[in-house]
Automatic annotation (TrEMBL):
This is HTH-type transcriptional regulator TtuA. It comes from Rhizobium laguerreae. InterPro entries: LysR-type_TF_proteobact-type, LysR_HTH_N, LysR_subst-bd, WH-like_DNA-bd_sf, WH_DNA-bd_sf. Transcriptional regulator of the ttuABCDE tartrate utilization operon. Residues 10-65 form the HTH lysR-type domain.
Length: 301
């Protein structure tokens, strides 16, 4: 039977059970990896605390008292349960199983997580991944998430961060049908006169102000228009339908720009910025399922 360290009274009770079942202080001390004198002191301390003699001992033998038998009968199922729980934890330390809880945006899921799910499922059939799609910045410690994926420039400083994707760029796009019917757009300020598709940031309760940068100068343009969404996919659809000008991640619109369904404008004003990062609270005692998940992401990069 193993020793249950760091539990005070539980240590003493486990030591008593070991001596009672071994019938010998010497044998019990060897099992518990402690000296015979320390073990004898532990039993005396337990007896003093309980107010009962639990063991009768002389120079050659140890026997259990009636009170000791009563206590041992109650202890054994509890100690067995503790042993089973500890063995289960040790087994789980080496096994990729359990639920991995993650928070991320839909774009991060599509770009980073979705591509590795088939291989993860094949390798680790006993593991479960739970993904919460959210655009707010959650307290992953308080809400018991294992980690999350967000843009690198938005991460909290006390998080451990792993870059999991390349730099990204925003792309200002519109359908040819829209551009054919409206004045040309030569600089960001021209957008003020156009019908733009806005994005509402639910976590901040505000409308996103479009960000631009050129020659080291960064600035924002507050645009307006007939449509506002909180999902980039809906913004993309509205831009393709010719309902206004969209501001989306470059990789989200690339296929539509290549096919001619959308035209990119103001590309010189939207430089790259830090892309997706996986973040989690600590490098210490990382769960095997998290280690396995991050390993697949690293291999994909």
């Amino acid at each position: 039977m193993r020793s249950h360290g760091g539990r005070g009274g539980l240590d003493d009770l486990a030591a008593f059970a070991c001596v009672a079942e071994a019938g010998s202080f010497t044998q019990a001390a060897a099992r518990l990896a402690m000296s015979t004198s320390n073990l004898s002191h532990t039993i005396r301390r337990l007896e003093a605390r309980l107010g009962y003699r639990l063991l009768q001992r002389n120079s050659r033998s140890v026997s259990i008292t009636e009170e000791g038998r009563t206590l041992l009968a109650a202890l054994r199922p509890a100690l067995d349960g503790i042993d089973e729980a500890l063995e289960s934890l040790e087994h789980g330390r080496e096994q990729v199983l359990g639920t991995l809880r993650l928070t991320m945006t839909r774009q991060a899921y599509e770009a980073i997580v979705r591509p590795i799910l088939p291989e993860f499922g094949r390798r680790y059939p006993e593991a479960t991944i739970e993904v919460l799609i959210d655009y707010a910045y959650r307290d992953i410690v308080a809400e018991q998430f294992d980690g999350g994926i967000r843009l690198g420039e938005k991460l909290e400083r006390d998080m451990i961060a792993l870059r999991v994707g390349p730099d990204l760029s925003m792309a200002i796009v519109a359908a040819p049908s829209y551009l054919d019917q409206h004045p040309p757009i030569l600089q960001p300020e021209d957008l003020i006169q156009h019908r733009c598709i806005n994005y509402r940031m639910l976590s901040a309760g505000t409308i996103y102000a479009w960000e631009f940068e050129r020659d080291g100068k960064a600035f924002e343009v507050g645009v307006s228009g007939p449509l506002t969404f909180n999902e980039p996919e809906l913004m993309l659809g509205a831009a393709i339908d010719g309902l206004g000008i969209g501001n989306l991640l470059e990789h989200e619109v690339a296929a539509y720009v290549e096919s001619g369904k959308l035209i990119r404008i103001l590309a010189d004003w939207t430089p790259p910025f830090p892309g997706f990062h996986f973040y989690h609270p600590s490098k210490q005692q990382m769960r095997p399922v998290l280690v396995a998940f991050l390993d697949l992401i690293r291999r994909r990069k």
